[in-house]
Automatic annotation (TrEMBL):
This is Troponin I, fast skeletal muscle. GO terms for molecular function: actin binding. Gene3D superfamilies: 1.20.5.350, 6.10.250.180. One of its GO terms (cellular component) is troponin complex. It comes from Opisthocomus hoazin.
Length: 182
């Protein structure tokens, strides 16, 4: 099945879209800055303090303090509304998740990774560490394990009858006491 658009055409379109988005983003930043300058020039009048007497300066300070208090109250009200809205949004998101039901986890696949690849992933590609885990394992000889096992094979019923009752317990006690095992 062939793709409807070639890879080079897709790359060209992607680069054109990114260039257009960058231009719009830059234009948006310039527009925001111009809007900010316009708003500040409307709201803030130049402050002329030269040639004012002490009482006029005090009146000016009182007016400025009143304006600051009004702006501060507005800021506090807006901040309280914003916090209330964010709490409400969080509650609604939780309700939506509850209505959707439980999220089903996708089945995880087992991935086989060698020890070298795991160390490379953990330590980074610049560390060349190779680790042979099998070299550090203790080797066990088959002959040693056969010598340790008793080769005594007998009728199990005799053993059960011999060990039953107090006599069997006495034999086990005696066997444990004597170092030779009689």
């Amino acid at each position: 099945r062939k793709p409807k658009i070639t890879a080079s055409r897709k790359l060209l379109l992607k680069s054109l879209m990114l260039a257009k988005a960058k231009e719009e983003w830059d234009q948006e930043i310039v527009d925001k800055q111009a809007e900010k300058e316009r708003y500040l020039s409307e709201r803030i009048t130049p402050l002329y303090t030269s040639g004012l007497s002490l009482s006029q300066l005090q009146d000016l300070c009182r007016e400025l303090h009143e304006k600051v208090e009004i702006v501060d109250e507005e800021r506090y009200d807006i901040e309280a509304k914003c916090n209330h809205n964010t709490r409400e949004i969080k509650d609604l998101k939780i309700k939506v998740l509850d209505l959707r039901g439980k999220f089903k986890r996708p089945p995880l696949r087992r991935v086989r990774v060698s020890a070298d690849a795991m160390l490379r992933a953990l330590l980074g590609s610049k560390h060349k560490v190779s680790m042979d885990l099998r070299a550090n394992l203790k080797s066990v000889k088959k002959e040693d394990t056969e010598k340790e096992r008793p080769v005594e094979v007998g009728d199990w019923r005799k053993n059960v009858e011999a060990m039953s009752g107090m006599e069997g317990r006495k034999k086990m006690f005696d066997a444990a006491k004597s170092p030779t095992g009689q």
